[in-house]
Amino acid sequence: MSPTHVLVLNSGSSSVKYQLLDMRDSSRLATGLVERIGEQTSRIKHTVAATGDTREQNGPIADHQAALKAVAEELARDGLGLDSPELAAIGHRVVHGGMFFSEPTVIDDAVLTEIERLIPVAPLHNPANLTGIRTAMALRPDLPQVAVFDTAFHTTMPEHAARYAIDTKIADRHRIRRYGFHGTSHAYVSRKTAGLLGKAPEDVNVIVLHLGNGASASAVRGGRCVDTSMGLTPLEGLVMGTRSGDLDPAVIFHLERVGGMSMDEIDTLLNKRSGLFGLCGDNDMREIQRRIDGGDAQARLAFDIYIHRLKKYIGAYYAVLGRVDAIAFTAGVGENAAPVREAAVGGLEGLGLAVDGDLNAVRGDGPRLISPAGARVAVAVVPTDEELEIATQTYALVGKGS
Q: Which residue, among 325, 324, 332, 327, has the nearest Cα to 386 in the 3D structure?
């Protein structure tokens, strides 16, 4: 019998998230997180999915190699180590694949070189992704390793949606275009939404709203992305936890010329000190809602700006698609913040959009409709599962031949 286990790795600059799945039934066998890599206060938290038992270890973990060795040791304690004959492949989340990678790809030296070439457009993410890949390849050089790219789902965007209106030679020379991110989430959620409606993905037009600390929207026509809110980087688009989203580019020139700020300072401002945090000092929607309930005007303004931007994108993507069958809310805020969902579609009844107050208030783990019965456009809450999507794509590519 061929091996059926897939280990999914998401390597950040100082962390590694992981999940081990059995692709016979897409069940989770183990999940975990190694955080604060390179510090004295490193921690690994490992959970056995079948029992829910959690083990935690604290102490210095020097680098990603040590982190993955610690992961392997934790898995081995459950009989699921990296040397297990049941392990078919390792799937890696890679944030930026440019236009070169439109599908999951078995990693070799040429793939590593191309991911490295893309570091200038993903300086915070691709280096960490590469470190995780190289470490895993060193530990299991005989095992297929697959890169699944956040940008891949968005490579179907037509040129008129992906290109910025700047000099084409300069844009091409520096690979400047809209790439989009959160692609594994948008792919998974758009497909699940179609299933919720009892239809095939190719028969459904969906607006997906991935609302977490990072947030993005996509217009999906018949299973293919035709537009998305994030651009060259994850900074463009919706108001986010700490990112500004859409901004007049001249603000940057103004801050440099008039405000005397350096490019690094502006970068930090727009990525880490803007969005909800910049507007009211909090980037947690739960805390913002608590403050609103207490009459905090600054929190209310931040919420209203967030919703205004979100509503603009819903309207824009409605126009792009022409016909919308469903809007799907996902990720931390999208799945859990009922006031955000209600406000986002409020006043859009003319477009066939509405939520049922009782359905919207219900919390649940599975995909569900929150629109009134008979609504022209379905409004859904669809929990995302990026790890399962990465594992599914990885196994589809290499599992059957393992």
A: 332
